[in-house]
């Protein structure tokens, strides 16, 4: 198996399939073998377009929200850990909430949940983002797109708060280290 090309797609599929209620897999290798044998290597790529489509708005909303929060909490952009943590947590929460519908579709594509698919008379395997959206809507309407939104928000908030506070700390630390060196060297030539 080509582990270098499968790794980013392999583990989310396996993790989600093993987390399903009554998962038929005995462990990691059993899941990899069974999915590869019964569905082919393509099973690990079914949610690729959905993942890409989700990451673009997630990151855009994430950065915009962080900057808007910093503008309100820290308009002079000084190093202030509290504002970085709060802004980072808010950015993660808003991004996670907005992109939850895409995450729900990605999870359906990764898990191919039999109960859901058989209730919709879907035979074979569900493929593609459009089919996933249609199936999620038919299964539960608009509210189905936001299943798990609270858990997703709670998961993202500390992660993004930590990431932003670490980023801001190192930006502050490295900038502070450069300032004395720049003063000693004099102004830079244009």
Automatic annotation (TrEMBL):
What's an example GO BP annotation here? Answer: iron import into the mitochondrion
State any single GO MF term: ferrous iron transmembrane transporter activity
List the GO terms this entry assigns under cellular component, sorted alphabetically: mitochondrial membrane
Top-level lineage group: Eukaryota
Which stretches are Solcar repeats?
Answer: 1-72, 79-173
Q: Which SUPFAM superfamilies match?
A: Mitochondrial carrier
> Hey, what's the signal peptide range on this chain?
none
Q: Which InterPro entries match?
A: MCP_dom_sf, MCP_transmembrane
DNA damage in keyword set:
no
User: What does the UniProt record say this protein does?
Assistant: Mitochondrial iron transporter that specifically mediates iron uptake in developing erythroid cells, thereby playing an essential role in heme biosynthesis.
Question: Which family does this protein fall into?
Answer: Belongs to the mitochondrial carrier (TC 2.A.29) family.
Could you tell me what this protein is called? Mitoferrin-1
Species of provenance: Astatotilapia calliptera (Eastern happy)
Could you read off the lineage of the organism from its UniProt record? Answer: Eukaryota, Metazoa, Chordata, Craniata, Vertebrata
């Amino acid at each position: 198996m080509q582990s270098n090309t499968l790794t980013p797609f392999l583990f989310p599929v396996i993790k989600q399939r093993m987390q399903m209620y009554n998962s038929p897999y005995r462990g990691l290798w059993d899941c990899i073998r069974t999915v590869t044998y019964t569905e082919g290597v393509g099973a690990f790529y079914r949610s690729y377009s959905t993942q890409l489509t989700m990451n673009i708005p997630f990151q855009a909303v994430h950065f915009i929200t962080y900057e808007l929060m910093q503008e309100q909490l820290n308009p002079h952009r000084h190093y202030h850990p509290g504002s970085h943590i709060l802004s980072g947590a808010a950015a993660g929460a808003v991004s996670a909430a907005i992109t939850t519908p895409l995450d729900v579709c990605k999870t359906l594509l990764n898990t191919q949940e039999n109960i859901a698919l058989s209730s919709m008379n879907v035979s074979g395997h569900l493929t593609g983002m459009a089919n996933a959206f249609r199936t999620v809507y038919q299964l539960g309407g608009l509210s189905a797109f936001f299943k798990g939104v609270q858990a997703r928000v709670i998961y993202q908030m500390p992660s993004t708060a930590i990431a932003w506070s670490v980023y801001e700390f190192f930006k502050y630390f490295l900038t502070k280290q450069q300032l004395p060196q720049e003063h000693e060297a004099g102004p830079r030539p244009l």
